[in-house]
Amino acid sequence: MMVLRAVCFGLLVSEIGAIPALQPYASAPATAVLPSIASTSTATASSQLDQLASFALIVTTERVSNRTAQKRDGCTRNKLRVRRDWRTLSDPQRREFIDAILCLQQLPSQTPPDLAPGAKTRYDDFVATHINQTRQIHFTGTFLGWHRYFVAEFEQALRSECGYTGDYPYWNWPDDTENLEDSPIFDGSDTSFSGNGAPIPNQPPEFALTISGRPPIWLPTGSGGGCITDGPFKNYTLNLGPAGLALPGGEQASAPNPLDYNPRCLKRDLTSSILRQFSNATAVVELLLKNRIVYDFQTSMQGTPGSGGIGVHGGGHYSMGGDPGRDVFTSPGDPAFWVHHGMVDRVWWIWQSLDWGARWNAISGTGTFLNEPPSPNTTLETVVDIGFAGSGGPIAMREIMSTTAGRFAMCIFDFLLFFLSFFLSFFSWGDCCGLG
Ligand SMILES: *[C@@H]1O[C@H](CO)[C@@H](O)[C@H](O)[C@H]1NC(C)=O
Ligand SMILES: *[C@@H]1O[C@H](CO)[C@@H](O)[C@H](O)[C@H]1NC(C)=O
Ligand SMILES: *[C@@H]1O[C@H](CO)[C@@H](O)[C@H](O)[C@H]1NC(C)=O
Ligand SMILES: *[C@@H]1O[C@H](CO)[C@@H](O)[C@H](O)[C@H]1NC(C)=O
Ligand SMILES: *[C@@H]1O[C@H](CO)[C@@H](O)[C@H](O)[C@H]1NC(C)=O
C-alpha cells in the first residue's frame, strides 16, 4: 500500500500542480496533500474532486487490507465491489446495465396490490417504496443511509433477479454541465438512459419548487418537455405518481393516490443550466470541504432551506426535468435516478473518508422532513426499511453507514484515473461479501 499510495499521490500532485496543502484529517495518509478550498475554476475543481476520490479510495483500501490482516471478518480486498463512472464503461458494459433495468421492468411486482395498486413490475416496487416514504427519507437523519441502502438493494435485485454481473455505475455530474444532450447518459443512443423529451414549443420558462411554506425557488425549464422519443427506455411506461410534480408555470400535480395505476410516458426536459449552477465541480468540492458536521453536509447537499439553492442532489434531479424528474416522490421512475444516486452515495463516501474515524457513524436529523412535525432524533439504532422493493428487510442505520462493514462490504471505488486502474489491476476483484 505504501508504494501504491506514494506513486498515486506523486502522480496526482505532479498532474494537478500547486494545490494548497492541508493535513487536518486524522486518518490522512502522511503523504496526502489535499485541497482545502474548492477552486472556482471548474477544471481545477474537477481535478480536486478526482484527488479527493482517490484519497477516499486509498483510505478504504487500506482499511480493508488492515482488516484482512486482522481477520476480523470475511470481507477481504479481493471481494470488494467497485463502482464506476458511467463514462468509463464500454458500450457492452453500458448495455448490460440497461438490459438488467429493462429486465426488472418486465418482472412482476412483489408489492401487495392493495397497498400499491399501480405497482405492476419489480421496478415499480422501488418507485412505490420511494413514494410511500418520501417524507421520512429527505431532509431527515436517514437521507444518506436510506438511499445508500436503496441503491445497494436495487443493485442486488439487478444481480440476483436479472443476472447483472457488471459494476454499479454513477453519474459524475460535473462532466455534463455544458451539454446534457451530449452526455453518454442522456444522448438517446442505444447505450444511454434514453434522451431528451420531445420539444414543447412555448413552454413556460420556469417552474417552482415549494418546500414547507418557504418562498418558492424558481428554476428554468429546459430544451425538451415531452415524452422521450429514443433509446432503450422509449417504450417504458411510468405507472405510479405523480405526487408533487412541479409543472412549468408554477403549478403542481398530484394524483389523489399516487400509488394508484396511472400509466404514462417518461418525460424529460434536459436543463444543463440547472446542473451547471448546482452540481458543477466547484459545488461538489465545496460541499465536501466546507461542511465539517454531517447536518451541514446533508442539508447543503439537498439545498439549505431559505438559501435559494437546491444542492448537488437537487441539481441532478431537476436537470433531468419532466415527469418524474421534477417529482421528489416519484423520481426513481426515471431510470437515470440510479446513476444519479450512485453519485450521491459516492460523494457521501468521499466526505466520510476525509475523516473516516469521526465521520463513518456521523448522524444528525430526525425522522420527519425538516423535522415537521417534530420527531425523535435519528440514531445508529434507528431502523429503516425499503418495503417490498428489496429483500434485505428492516435494518438499523448502524449497518448501512460504512461501505465496507455491516450490511455492505461493498466498496465505492472509481477508475476515473488511468494510473489508478493500472495499479489496482494488480488486485483481483470478485463478488462482494455482505450483499447476499
Ligand atoms: C492500517 O494499518 C497501518 C499500520 O498499522 C496504520 O498505520 C494505518 O493507519 C491503518 N490504516 C487505516 C485506514 O486504518
Ligand atoms: C418499442 O416497441 C416497438 C413496437 O413493439 C418495437 O418495435 C421497438 O423495438 C421497441 N423499442 C425499444 C427500444 O424497445
Ligand atoms: C457552480 O456552483 C456554485 C454553487 O452552486 C455556483 O455558485 C456557481 O455559480 C456555479 N458555477 C457556474 C459556472 O454556474
Ligand atoms: C437531538 O439532536 C439535537 C441536535 O443535535 C440535540 O440538540 C438534541 O439534544 C437531541 N435530542 C435528544 C433527545 O437527544
Ligand atoms: C407504506 O408505509 C406503511 C407504513 O410504514 C407500510 O405499512 C406500507 O406497507 C407501505 N406501503 C408500501 C407500498 O410499501
TrEMBL record:
The chain crosses the membrane at residues 407-429. InterPro entries: Di-copper_centre_dom_sf, Tyrosinase/Hemocyanin, Tyrosinase_Cu-bd. Keywords: Membrane, Metal-binding, Signal, Transmembrane, Transmembrane helix. One of its GO terms (molecular function) is metal ion binding. Pfam families: Tyrosinase. Residues 138-155, 334-345 form the Tyrosinase copper-binding domain. PROSITE patterns: TYROSINASE_1, TYROSINASE_2. Residues 1-18 form the signal peptide. PANTHER family: TYROSINASE, TYROSINASE FAMILY MEMBER. This is Tyrosinase.
